[in-house]
Specification:
226 residues; Arc Repressor Mutant, subunit A; Four Helix Bundle (Hemerythrin (Met), subunit A); 3-stranded antiparallel sheet; 3 strands; globular; GntR_C; DNA-binding; WH-like_DNA-bd_sf
Length: 226
């Protein structure tokens, strides 16, 4: 008698492999470990992540839907490079979520712990912090602001937007003063939130996002003209 298979377990394992691979690639993008335009070799990456090539392809598709990866004819899968319309869309998303969080959100113990981590990185001397660590602190701060909403869907949406922001920022990490320019303001925002005064940040955050967007757009324009 042939034993019956256990499809549910097999499916759970498959989904776990896909989700694990997608999360690892997402983490690398968020941490600026994968540069825009990087080609992802399927065979080598599947072996590195210890997943099947089919599972890796599904992970690629998941991140392509988040616009973190793109599939190019004759080039395979590469890390996305956000363009001007995408940057504008990202910042519209950020304004809606972050300004709403400051107005209606709550500073929970979990949010407070994240804010303390931001302060710990930036408070000694923001201008002396490595640009990549500044970028990490920036991601953590805005993730904490999204967490103030208490809405997992909004947090997931902002996380995807911030990963794409990191891709837009990444070429500028060492080419411009992007991170030092915003590091002190990130520190001030974190400290104001820790003082339980989010209402004081509405105008500050709106101006912050306007300037950050314009900074990225100007730099993208310069790179296209070069």
């Amino acid at each position: 008698m042939v034993q019956s298979r256990r499809p549910r377990r097999s499916e759970a394992q498959r989904r776990g492999a896909v989700g694990g691979a997608a999360e690892e690639l997402r983490r690398r993008i968020e941490n600026a470990e994968l540069a825009p335009g990087t080609r992802l070799g399927e065979v080598a990456l599947a072996a590195e992540l210890d997943v099947s090539r089919n599972s890796l392809r599904e992970a690629f598709a998941e991140l392509a839907a988040e616009r973190l990866l793109v599939r190019r004819p004759h080039r395979g899968v590469i890390v996305a490079s956000p363009d001007v319309p995408q940057v504008r869309e990202i910042y519209r998303t950020r304004r809606i979520i972050e300004l709403g969080a400051l107005r209606f959100g709550e500073i929970t113990p979990e949010v407070e712990a994240e804010l303390h981590q931001v302060v710990a990185v930036l408070s000694p001397d923001p201008s002396a912090v490595d640009p990549r660590l500044m970028g990490d602190a920036n991601q953590r701060l805005h993730g904490a602001i999204a967490a103030m909403t208490g809405a997992s869907d909004l947090q997931r949406t902002l996380r995807q937007a911030m990963a794409r922001v990191r891709l837009a920022f990444q070429p500028m990490d060492r080419e411009t003063a992007l991170h030092p320019l915003f590091a002190e303001r990130n520190l001030q925002i974190a400290q104001t939130l820790l003082d339980r005064r989010p209402e004081d940040l509405q105008e500050t955050m709106a101006s912050y996002l306007d300037q950050a967007e314009q900074f990225v757009l100007d730099h993208l324009s310069e790179r296209q003209d070069a």
